[in-house]
Amino acid sequence: MKMESSQSVLSIFVFSGFSDCQRAEKRKEMCAGVCGLCSAAEEERMREIVMQEREKLKSRLGFLLISAGCAIGVGNVWKFPYMAGQGGGGTFLLFYVLFLVIMGLPIMTMEFAVGRASQKSPVKAYQALEKPGQKWHIHGYITLIGCYLLMMFYTTVTGWMLHYFYLTAVGAFEGQDAAGVENIFNDMLGQPLVMGGWMILVVAVCIFICSRGLQNGLEKITKVMMLALMVLMLVLAINSCMLDGAGEGLKFYLLPDFKRMMETGIGNTIVGAMNQSFFTLSLGIGAMAIFGSYIGKERSLLGESINVALLDTFVAFTAGLIIFPACFSYGVDQTSGPSLIFITLPNIFNHMPLGRMWGCLFFICMTFAAISTVLAVFENIITCGMELTGCSRKKSSLVNLVLIIVLSLPCVLGYNVWSWDGFKIFGGTIMDLEDFLVSNILLPLGSVVYLLFCVTRYGWGWKNFMKEANTGKGAKMANWMRGYLTFVLPLIVLFIFGYGIYDKFF
């Protein structure tokens, strides 16, 4: 029996570099006609151990695109261009890039480092790295709550994108004036069955993709979507830039305009750039940490963070190249929020030559951007469920399919059946409350926790973080950064937290 066990365990280590199917075949080859000792129970035990081995992403490109897909969302389109326009165009862009470098990159590097060093999901990562008796792991459970909260409204928003792709494809906006386009949006919000149906479709499709595994599901689909997203956005940007009057829109967007910045307020512009650069990367709820646990140590983590931030910025910047030339060409003011995507742009496409085609391409882009975020966060949630309960990926996927649909219903119903004036303080709806909890509470405070965990001796510690972050080829973290990351950056993030609370309630 000892011989039997030893041989089975040995085979697992010998063939650990193969896929599951390859391992099974190699195991048969090793045993066939040689030992004849392995029982059915032993074979089943070997299979269980093999399946419990942590999955890895197949390629570096997959890691970069999935991480970027998590960061890229509808906020890149319905908020960034508007803020850039109001903040003085190129002036805002300069501040945005500055804060992205001094805030976003270090925190993202820390999330990746915690994930890669622990080889665990965010809910278990702290337990693997913290010292005995410490309580950092409590934040691991909070990150999971944050992911659920994000999906409670983001699945509905993704459903909006699919619905508008359908409406554009069937020509629902043709012949409509501005008021008619706005009424279509309001009618959608008043129909819980329509919104609920699209939301359920989004959840079901994304859960199914994640249930197929890391490489065969999430990585394969995200690669295709993200590459298609970038190509389509470039096509849309080129088309917008070729419209009559597009030049004025490009000047408004790209050239620094200090007068416009002064009208908005220097402080408001700087704070706006700071907020956008921070929130765009979805840091603080472990959404990035999970992908750090799926990669090897060939590349340094600061270098990978730079690449992810560049991809995210590319999409946000290109969105401006789509929106501003089109708005100026047709004499339409750019707006912020859902009204930009669901009212302003459909009006533009309605008057544009081949508008139905361009509108369909745009909403395909928005769908891909939204679904990439949903898939990334779903992967985090499903993996956390697997590690907390010991269940299989398929079982965790099935449970979360039901759970996320149920949890997403309040957002759907909050626009109609469950509408309540009490939510006006947060923006008007249940979705606004959920967004406030994620964006204004969990993201900034969670980022501070990751910061302190990595830089202080009361957590993982600076030396451990530096060793992990700087392993591999690429840009490195420097020791001189320690003072800034320990004493300055936490205060900046806490300022963002405090300003968000003040801006919301006072």
Task: Please describe what this structure looks like.
This protein is an all-alpha fold. It has 2 domains: about 1-50, no CATH class; about 70-505, Amino acid/polyamine transporter I (Up-down Bundle). Helix content is about 75%, strand content about 0%. Helix 4 packs across helix 12 (about 215-240) and helix 6 runs antiparallel to helix 15 (about 265-280).
Short description:
With 506 residues, the chain is an all-alpha fold.
Write down the domain tally.
Answer: 2
Strand-residue fraction? under 5%
Quick one: CATH class of the largest domain?
Answer: Mainly Alpha
CATH topology of the largest domain: Amino acid/polyamine transporter I
Q: What sort of overall outline do the alpha carbons produce when their principal axes are compared?
A: globular
Order of helices and strands: HHHHHHHHHHHHHHHHHHHHHHH
The low-confidence runs, each spanning 5 or more residues with pLDDT under 50, are 1-38, 43-52
Radius of gyration, in Å, reads 24 Å
Outline the biggest β-sheet. none
Q: How much helix, percentage-wise, in residues?
A: over 70%
Distance between the termini: 72 Å
Assigned CATH architecture of the largest domain: Up-down Bundle
Topology, element by element:
Layout lengths: L1 H13 L5 H12 L8 H13 L7 H12 L3 H4 L1 H7 L3 H29 L3 H8 L7 H33 L8 H12 L2 H20 L2 H28 L4 H9 L3 H7 L1 H14 L9 H4 L8 H29 L8 H14 L3 H35 L3 H21 L16 H26 L6 H8 L11 H25 L1
Helix pairs in contact: 1-3, 4-12, 4-17, 4-19, 6-7, 6-15, 6-17, 7-8, 7-15, 7-17, 7-21, 8-9, 9-11, 9-19, 9-20, 9-21, 10-18, 11-12, 11-19, 11-20, 12-17, 12-19, 13-17, 18-19, 19-20, 21-23
